[in-house]
Amino acid sequence: MIATYSIAACDLDAGRWGVAVQSKFLAAGSLVPWAEPEVGALATQAYANPRYGPEGLALLRQGLAAEEVVARLTAADDGREQRQLGVVDAQGRGASFSGAECHDWAGGRTGDCYAAQGNILVSGATVDALVETFEGTKGAGLAERLIDCLAAAQAAGGDSRGQQAAGLLVVERDGGYGGLSDVVVDLRVDDHPTPVDELRRIYGLHQALFGATPRDEWVAVDGELAGELRDRLERLGFGGELEQALVAWAGQENLEERVDGAEHLDPVVLEALRSQG
Q1: Contact 43, 8 (CB under 8 A)
Q2: Which of 52, 116, 196, 262 has its CA 20 to 30 A from that of 99?
Q3: How far apart are CA 83 and CA 259, in angstroms?
């Protein structure tokens, strides 16, 4: 049983859909979250039916509203009274279902661009915290909002059995690595005493490597800085023409997404290079 709290949500302005989950269940992030850009997002839990994921996205792809997707999935499932499901569709409509046989506390709330739900919770305050945090963080990035939702829900009581796993999935059309993937973030903490804290930590690493600093915040590389960069790169074994050396070093450090020529430098790259001596 995936005794869980989760939120399926979207940011229509950014074109992003996602799911965040925490549970006292090993690797919950491998089963609960499903999302497809410009289609929707879905969380399946309690006595989870993993088929809800691909089948639900297929229905959403047809243009069905979240409520209709929930109705069709549960109507076709003899085990529906033990299931819990949250869906957000392409227009940001939310729907949540909790079967009558889900263990207390179980329930969900929906609103514009979200569906929040949980089962075997300390109380309904956990789901309330998901909702209040999501509604109160408009303007922030979707991934950050979802992690904040998990943290607030845990502080409000969380899973009555404790903590173990967390997951975060965010998608955007061509928004992932190199513009060649729709997966912006796909991170899991499968077994940890404080999984939400650990999820936030590895999300920070993800952003350092794959995030984007606005170009107007990049540092102009003048003669003095170019000399410093050459010296630092040469000490690290990357000699030769500056741009080539910088690209080679960045590739080794998994920072290639943050390098674009050598006339301007992402401050994250500069800090990382300086930290190496």
Answers
A1: yes
A2: 196
A3: 46
Cα separation, 156 vs 166, whole angstroms: 16
> In this structure, what CATH number is given to the domain that contains residue 147?
3.60.20.10
pLDDT at 2: 57
Which segments of the chain have a pLDDT < 70?
1-3, 277
CB neighbours of residue 234 within 10 Å? 12
pLDDT score at 3: 59
CA atoms within 13 A on the CB side of 211: 16
Q: Say whether both 54 and 143 belong to one domain.
A: yes
Angular region, 38: left φ>0, alpha ψ -120 to 50, beta rest: left
Q: What DSSP assignment string belongs to 113-170?
A: TEEEEESSBS-THHHHHHHHHHHHTTTS-HHHHHHHHHHHHHHTT-BTT---EEEEEE
Residue 207: Cβ within 10 Å count? 15
Q: What secondary structure letter does DSSP report for 28?
A: G
**The pair of three-digit structure tokens given for residue 63, joined into one six-digit string:** 């243009």
Same domain, residue pair 134 and 258:
no
Boundary residue ending a domain (186, 210, 234): 210
Question: Of the residues 163, 189, 210, which one is the last residue of a structural domain?
Answer: 210
**Three-state secondary structure along 194-248?**
CHHHHHHHHHHHHHHHHCCCCHHHCEECCHHHHHHHHHHHHHCCCCCCHHHHHHH
How much is the pLDDT for 161? 84
Which 3 state secondary structure label does DSSP give 261?
A: coil
> How many residues are there in the chain?
277
**Whether 188 contacts 32, CB under 8 Å:** no
